[in-house]
Cyclic di-GMP phosphodiesterase response regulator RpfG
Amino acid sequence: MAPPSVVPALSDTTLRERFEQLRKSFGVPFAVVDLGTGELNHVPAAWLPIDLDVALPVLEEIARRGRPAVVEDCAPLLVLAVPLLPDDDLPCSEVAVATFLTQAVADAEHLAAAAKAVRVELETLQHWALTQPIWPPHAVTQLSDSVCRRVSAEAENKKLRTQLTSVSQHLLQTFEELNLLHRINERLSLSMDDHQLLELAVEWLSEVLPAECLLACMFEASPTGIHQLPRQWIYTGECPLPIDELDQFLDRLGPDAKQSMVVLDQDETSSPTWYYSTVREVISVPIRTGNSVIGWLVAINHSPSARRQSNQFGTLETSLLSSVASMVGMHSGNVRLYNDQSTFFESVVRAFSSAIDAKDPYTCGHSERVARISVLIARQLKCSKEQLNSIYLAGLLHDIGKIGVDDHILRKPGELTLEEFEHIKQHPTLGYNILKGVRQLQHVLPVVLHHHEAWDGSGYPGGLVGEEIPWLARIVAVADSFDAMSSDRPYRAGMPAEKLNKIFHSARGQQWDARVIDAFFAVRDEIESVIHLDRKQLSLDVTEWNVIY
Ligand SMILES: [Fe+2]
């Protein structure tokens, strides 16, 4: 048997602290029994020995119950056992034991009986009893209960403090993550391209993610899933690899690295088979839109920050990178969807416009000219960006109702009969009905319906007067009339400029809004250029135009 230690060789700090509390509270020496070995591992001076062979089963039961208990009560001696409970739910394997003198020793015979009962030498007991205070038995058990409750309460407090620290740390990490995502989200816009998006993501990640290098790239996903190399990588910090080796580097992270998240720590990178000696830690996260991988965010080599002394990437870094990759992928997908929809919408508008021209080939290009002239006049009238875009669209589509007008009337040279004119007058209402179900074209409906109204109320279909006529419709009315009168027809030449100007001057404030006519004459030269020069196709967004003709 190994000799017992001078100080208790308890299994952890918590047990040592508990033993000390017990010893100080009672002021008497406690020995410690290791139930695993069945031996004493600490025997203080002035400790009255006990018969371990007899006591061990009782001590095991006391440890199992987890509460202090009397092992032997043999007046004037009382043996107390206190289980030293671990913090966690592990079984108790160490028990503190002490013997108390519970009454004054009346005579030698009484003491001899007690020595026999607890199986110690009489002489040892006599010597020990001389130095012992008298303890009322109930005081021993009450104090032991009290000490154990205090120890349990302190253990619970410690556990709660640990949990609180953990929750606080988690909250701090979550706050940092949410704060970063919020800051990135605030800056996102549909006009941001993939390159700008990645620059933003990498820049902001570098403020909160302690990595020596942060990298990102995105590309167009091809239908076959095969992507063209090289891709353009954006990075901050010092990249420990040549940039042109990054694609190969991703391949070496594992067979699934291009489709799934990869986290490598120093356990993996210290392996003799690891290829890149300058790379100690890696997190690689794919950027997805829908089911397609369209890029990656990569963090290489942890750089300990002032706040986090870890030298490895942890769950916070992994979570941050994943969240940002999700946001980047989602936004990029939205931008691509928006661009696809814009392209589709523009195609539909152009198709409508072409359909009008095809219906009436003599007026070919009329819709585009009216649209551009309307924009020129509207700019002169200081219309807003939204109004400019609306009036361009409205100009392209204002005669869409002619699709429903009989061809022979539409193409008839010369004067129309009254009946034919009544038929052709239906085209604004027909156009309105064609477009009214298209949500994206609601703002052009007033122009389509009212572009043939006259300021004095003599127009159609509503016979609206003055400012009852929608503002943009008054502008398109001037542009429409100008193009109709100035364009050549197979059966007549376009009206000379002088005559045309005279008509517009004389009908100012009667047929047309005076303010619109003034604006028309202010941009008269530019309008002439629109009519006579070759035209390139323009964007539906007027703010993107450099020239109008
Ligand atoms: Fe018209």
Residues 13-157 form one domain. The pocket of fe (ii) ion is lined by residues 398-399, 427, 451-452, 480 (CB under 6 Å). The CA atoms of residues 145 and 320 lie 49 Å apart.
